[in-house]
Write a structure and sequence with these properties.
Blueprint: H1 7-21, H2 28-37, E1 42-46, H3 54-60, E2 63-68, H4 71-81, E3 87-91, E4 103-108, H5 119-131, E5 133-143, E6 153-164, E7 169-180, E8 185-196, E9 206-216, H6 220-229, E10 232-238, E11 253-259
Parallel strand pairs: 1-2, 1-4, 2-3, 4-5
Antiparallel strand pairs: 5-11, 6-7, 7-8, 8-9, 10-11
Helix pairs in contact: 1-4, 2-3
The chain binds S-adenosylmethionine (SAM).
């Protein structure tokens, strides 16, 4: 499932798009840093992507192992962070993760848990995380409450148009999505049109690709049940990166989970 979504093709745009589009989400790093800095210790980061959070974890942790299934994202992370004695990089699907260590903190940022599309995969992954969690360790993850709540939008609609300084290209992104209400899954097809403007690169060339992704809605009560099924418990839920309470318009729910 998840690996059929073309993360590798999207890698050149990920950091750039995150930077221009995700003003609120980018504060998540403050939550993860603050939760680890109290104790330091070892961190396992699942779905690390290009290392957006990793670079900040390295400042507050003694040791960080990162895991992702997309090789191009891991290559980008190595380009950005270089080889570091405190950093271990593992390519694995999160459902199958099997490492010889246990960690003080396990992190899944930016709705990564919601890429698991079935209850079976969700529980299986939580069980794998439990196996890698030290006795008094914590699992930290954020969930977006806004997945699969709208009506389907099957025709492409314009989402943004921005200039990419490094690629020297105008990038137009059009989005469309289908909602499966029974399964609570939102399937996106995001079309990128990259129009190069610079002689030295590919002036006049236009590239197009479609990025597919799917996320599942997870309710708070459901998350508690999933944790129970994996013999874990939800210890705390915050409604904002600065440890605020959950409100109707909270952009993220930040879960703190530990052993039962
Ligand atoms: C939205 S990105 C988040 C990246 C990073 N955590 C951040 O906050 O910027 C989701 C990441 O999860 C990875 N991913 C998705 N499904 C996965 C799976 N089944 N196993 C491991 N990684 C997965 C993708 O390759 C991608 O890098």
């Amino acid at each position: 499932m998840n690996n059929t979504f073309n993360w590798n093709e999207f890698v050149e745009l990920y950091d750039w798009e995150f930077d221009i589009m995700c003003d609120e989400q980018k504060h998540d790093v403050e939550f993860y840093q603050s939760m680890i800095a109290k104790k330091r210790g070892s961190v396992l980061e699942i779905g690390c992507g290009t290392g957006r959070i990793t670079q900040h974890l390295l400042v507050v942790a003694d040791y960080v192992t990162v895991v992702d299934s997309a090789p191009a994202f891991l290559e980008k992370l190595i380009d950005k962070l270089g080889e570091q004695p405190k950093l271990e990089i593992v390519r694995s699907d999160m459902r199958d993760i099997d490492l010889p260590k246990r960690y003080d903190h396990i992190i899944m940022s930016y709705s990564t848990f919601q890429y698991l599309l079935t209850t079976e995969d969700q529980v299986k992954t939580l069980q794998r995380l439990k196996k890698h969690l030290s006795d008094d360790g914590q699992i930290l993850l954020d969930i977006s409450p806004f997945i699969a709540i709208a009506e389907s939008q099957l025709e492409y609609i314009p989402y943004y148009h921005h200039y990419h300084e490094v690629l020297k290209a105008n990038i137009t992104m059009l989005t469309s999505y289908r909602i499966d209400n029974d399964e609570k899954i939102q399937y996106w097809k995001d079309k990128y049109i990259i129009n190069y403007t610079d002689e030295s690169i590919k002036k006049g060339q236009i590239e197009k690709f479609v990025h597919h992704l799917a996320l599942r809605r997870v309710e708070i009560e459901e998350m508690k049940q999933l944790c129970q099924m994996a013999n874990l418990q939800v210890k705390q839920i915050y409604g904002s990166y600065d440890h605020g309470i959950i409100k109707k318009d909270s952009n993220n729910w930040f879960f703190v989970i530990n052993h039962y």
